[in-house]
Amino acid sequence: MMIVEERNYAFAPTDLPGFLKIYEEEGVHIATRVLGNLLGYFRTEVGPDLNEVVHLWGFKDLNDRALRRAALWQDAEWLDFAVRCPSPIRQRNRLLMPTAWSPIR
User: Fold this and answer.
1) Would 78 be classed as within a structural domain?
2) Which stretch is the leader sequence (predicted)?
3) pLDDT tens digits for 57-82?
4) Residue 40 domain flag
5) What is the distance between the alpha carbons of residues 63 and 78, in angstroms, rounded to a whole number?
6) How many CB atoms lie within 10 A of CB 14?
7) Regions of the chain short of the pLDDT cut 50
8) Helix axes 62-72, 28-35, angle to 10 degrees
9) Contact present, 39 and 4 (Cβ < 8 Å)
10) pTM of the model
11) CATH classification of the domain holding 33
């Protein structure tokens, strides 16, 4: 069974385009190289949480997640990227466990 981490970052309206640009050009490649299993990356279009990105990452288990997240923050390329990247004004993370009938297991 896999766990899915849902990460939600809210940006100031003027920061979101810059974040999406730099993340597409640099960040996603670094993060995927270290974290591995990117299940999806989305931006909100309507609703109460505008200017938010939502990304889903799959991990074998909590230990796999912990090791990969720690490795990300030890990666020189990621650290260089992170200091140049717009910072979210709010972040929310959740760990999701699939049900027995979930297509993602």
Assistant:
1) yes
2) none
3) 999 999 999 999 999 999 999 999 99
4) yes
5) 21
6) 9
7) none
8) 140
9) yes
10) 0.92
11) 3.30.70.100
